[in-house]
Design brief:
Helix content is about 70%, strand content about 0%. The protein is an all-alpha fold and about 200 residues long.
């Protein structure tokens, strides 16, 4: 008779399984990873993961939800901790680059994967929305303060596209180590100048 699992037991195993899945999904691609393989990574029977998740898509959604929420938390903390309204953009940008290179598997699964979304994973939809909002929140601060002019959503997307681009290029070995951060700073400065009122 299987022992009764406490909430802590469930949370701990889900966390361990998601950590293993995150690495394997990023290295091999979700389609190449099996539930049996995930079970073997943790040294449990092939059916054990099904006690915690419905299927592999459920695990992938949990991994991505956690990633988006941790990403959003990092950017929100950077924005809140900035000493000035002008410093918010730089702080958020630095936090973005830090997160990407400190969590490359997570970052890849967040942004380089098109997972079909449906009503089965509302928490993933909400986490993705939260992460997206963090990319324009600091722009809204600057527009409200008269430091920048334009549509905050569009401007946030411009900065996001530029930052994501240099990060992916460095991760793919197309740029030398450290180049993404340097280019991110220079692109941000150039875009910022062009978006100031009267520029």
């Amino acid at each position: 008779m299987p022992r009764v699992l406490t909430e802590t037991d469930v949370a701990d195993f889900r966390e361990r399984l998601c950590a293993a899945a995150e690495r394997l999904f990023a290295e091999q691609g979700p389609d190449a990873v099996t539930m049996r393989q995930l079970a073997a990574e943790l040294g449990v029977s092939p059916m054990t993961p099904y006690r915690y998740f419905q299927d592999k898509d459920d695990i992938l959604a949990a991994v991505r939800t956690s990633g988006f929420n941790r990403f959003a938390e990092a950017l929100e903390k950077a924005r809140e901790g900035a000493a000035s309204v002008r410093g918010k953009g730089a702080a958020v940008g630095d936090a973005y680059v830090d997160f990407a290179f400190e969590n490359p598997h997570t970052y890849k699964l967040m942004f380089d994967l098109n997972q079909p979304l449906d009503g089965n994973h509302p928490e993933l939809i909400e986490a993705g929305r939260r992460a997206h909002d963090t990319m324009s929140a600091w722009v809204k601060d600057l527009v409200a303060a008269g430091e920048m002019a334009g549509d905050p959503e569009e401007i946030g997307t411009m900065f996001w596209a530029a930052t994501h681009g240099v990060i992916v290029l460095e991760m793919a070995g197309k740029l030398p180590p450290g180049a993404a951060r340097n280019l991110h700073d220079r692109i941000g400065t150039a875009l910022g100048k062009g978006l100031r009122p009267g520029a």
